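Tokens as discussed.
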């Protein structure tokens, strides 16, 4: 069987190089050996694969069919050998990553220098885009995406899960009051994203553990990125359905507060995505494992602050936005206000934890 596979690989190399001479040079074999191996392959298959003339080689119909199947085998063997070689030498080479714009700027960006210091042989090509790119066509090694994975040709590794809640600024509540039931939302201004539109109606999917439904809202601003809506939220322009990743620091400092605290949107998953059947290279594996590690440390930092659905406070004053943002940016250490020595304590309302990270 090994002899048969070698003959097949020699045939593929002849087709790719366009001549026996060039193939022999690439393989480091005598030209006569290469020619003989192809003849033996044709004899074993009982079909002529190559049309030989004094000027060029061409594929027969049988040769074309055989080559189309065998070139994939040859490529996978090369990738397998390359993967083993990379394992010997460690992660290296260019790593092309695509990530939603805000996630790249707010959360991932600060981590890239740390990843590079840990893996100096890896060079990063970061593509910030809110579009769903073609991983193969755009030569993407790994994509970070929110939501479910409808494309069965891709594989996802879960990095964390987040539940969105409804937030408002104190200035908005002072002017417009606070919704007391989900049905009240249709009488309030809302800052929404395109996927909140269902036909001609804008609504938020919400549940309280016992009941769920789509509740109408009145959009005042639409954006395809939650961080683009955040300034309007802080300015009191409307209510916003968002994850704690977006507003964690402002929630801790009192710049925003939760409304309808018993209600929340469906869990949103953050996944690392790559093509199914591809050889998971050491650089991709190292990057995904690094993100998982940082997500776990981020969760630890949040819990050290006592932050779930809570408003964190120091013994002498509130935890600052900067402190919470450091934790939300996956900071590995306990976060403490400058000059503060007191430990954080929490005031916990009867609601679910704001961050529900689940790593595999």
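Sequence:
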């Amino acid at each position: 069987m090994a002899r048969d596979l070698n003959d097949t690989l020699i045939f593929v190399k002849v087709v790719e190089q366009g001549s026996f001479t060039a193939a022999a040079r690439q393989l480091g074999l005598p030209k006569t050996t290469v020619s003989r191996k192809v003849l033996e392959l044709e004899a074993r298959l009982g079909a002529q694969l190559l049309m030989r003339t004094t000027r060029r080689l061409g594929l027969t119909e049988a040769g074309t069919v055989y080559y189309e199947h065998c070139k994939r085998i040859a490529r996978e063997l090369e990738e397998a050998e390359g993967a083993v070689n990379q394992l010997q030498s460690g992660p290296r080479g260019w790593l092309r990553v695509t990530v939603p714009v805000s996630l790249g700027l707010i959360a991932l960006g600060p981590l890239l220098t740390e990843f590079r210091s840990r893996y100096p042989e890896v060079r990063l090509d970061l593509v910030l885009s809110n579009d769903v790119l073609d991983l193969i066509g755009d030569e993407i090694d790994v994509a970070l995406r929110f939501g479910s994975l409808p494309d069965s040709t891709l594989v996802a590794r879960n990095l964390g899960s987040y539940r969105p809640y409804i937030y408002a600024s104190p200035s908005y509540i002072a002017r417009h009051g606070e919704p007391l039931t989900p049905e009240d939302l249709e009488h309030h201004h809302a800052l929404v994203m395109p996927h909140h539109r269902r036909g001609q109606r804008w609504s938020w999917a919400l549940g309280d553990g016992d009941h769920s439904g789509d509740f109408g809202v009145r959009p005042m601003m639409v954006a395809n990125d939650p961080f683009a809506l955040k300034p309007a939220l802080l300015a009191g322009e409307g209510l916003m359905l968002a994850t704690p990743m977006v507003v964690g620091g402002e929630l801790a400092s009192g710049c925003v507060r939760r409304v309808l605290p018993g209600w929340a949107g469906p869990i949103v998953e953050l996944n690392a995505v790559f093509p199914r059947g591809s050889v998971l290279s050491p650089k991709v594996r190292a990057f995904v494992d690094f993100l998982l590690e940082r997500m776990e440390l981020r969760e630890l930092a949040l819990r050290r602050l006592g932050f779930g659905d809570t408003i964190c406070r120091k013994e002498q004053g509130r935890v600052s936005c900067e402190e919470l943002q450091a934790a939300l940016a996956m900071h590995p250490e306990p976060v403490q206000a400058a000059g503060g020595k007191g430990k954080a304590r929490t005031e916990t309302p009867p609601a679910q934890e704001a961050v529900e990270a689940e790593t595999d």
